[in-house]
Known about the structure:
Blueprint: E1 6-9, H1 19-33, E2 38-41, H2 55-66, H3 88-100, E3 104-107, H4 111-118, H5 140-148, E4 154-157, E5 164-169, E6 173-178, H6 179-182, E7 187-189, H7 197-207, E8 212-216, H8 223-233, E9 239-243, H9 256-260, H10 264-268, H11 273-283, H12 295-303, H13 309-316
Parallel strand pairs: 1-2, 8-9
Antiparallel strand pairs: 3-4, 4-7, 5-6
Helix pairs in contact: 1-12, 7-8
Amino acid sequence: MPEIVRGRYAPSPTGTLHMGNLRTALLAWLFARSVSGEFILRIEDLDQPRMKPHATKQMIQDLQWLGLDWDEGPEGGPYAPYIQSERLEIYQNYLQQLQAAGLVYPCYCSRAEIQQAAAHLPPGIDGGARYPGTCRQLSDKQRRQYERQGRHPALRLRVADELTITFTDLLLGSQQQQVQQAVGDFILRRADGIFAYQLAVVVDDALMHLNQIVRGADLLSSTARQIVLYQLLGFPIPTFAHVPLIHNSQGQKLSKRIQSEGLVPLQVSNYTAAEVVGLLAHSCGLRDTPTEITAAQLADHYRQQPVTLLCDQLRTGSCT
Ligand code: GLU
Ligand code: ZN
């Protein structure tokens, strides 16, 4: 019997969900529900200083208002808790597993020092500086020196020099990344003690048995790093679909105001959820017209179609 699809939406409560976030949520939900799969909501609130009070509650209300539902989430489920700030011990355990394998080292560099050290190197992915490996071979003496200066280290994963990760994105096709060239040894725990997104997301997606990761295309460049961690931790690798973001400059199908603000202005103007879902579905090429349709109707529609239709339409439809 084929494995049941388990998908998720994993927002960070840093503010209001804007239309781009809501479209990603709708698509992630649709990818799961259109094949009668399960859907999970996880709250990614590790970076506590960036979190806004009440944002989680508001996000949940907005998703529910749109007609999206989930089988497991902050309310509970078999792999609870689904709130990252309540899972720190779990991340610590997996970090220790990597440490025990000799794959982790402390890095005392400041951001400015990394930029300086990488200045003569080609830039990494997304234009950022790749970590040039400064602290890879620090002696115990050098480490003690840094510690005496009161520096707190970040913890980095030692990435094999020649490691190239390939995977097939359901929408974007074959992808390849040489991880050292793209980012270098990457951070698992920041100097301020906060676990890195890359580690937490892999541990959670694996422990929650998620096998289908649908998220915004801004995270495409992270996927190779995550696959490195899946492999090192011995977890099965899920399928990935990175969906288009809403770009302000070319968003003809959704007005500027609608894009950048959340649901509130639409609700104030008496839009119904079906009208908003219709707009979102139209904006990414799933529907020819922006006419109203509920999320449930949209899922029903795709359940009766070949499973590839959703991907095909997203790939070929003019997405704004
Ligand atoms: N929490 C991340 C964000 O809000 C998404 C993580 C993911 O989907 O992998 O951007
Ligand atoms: Zn360093």
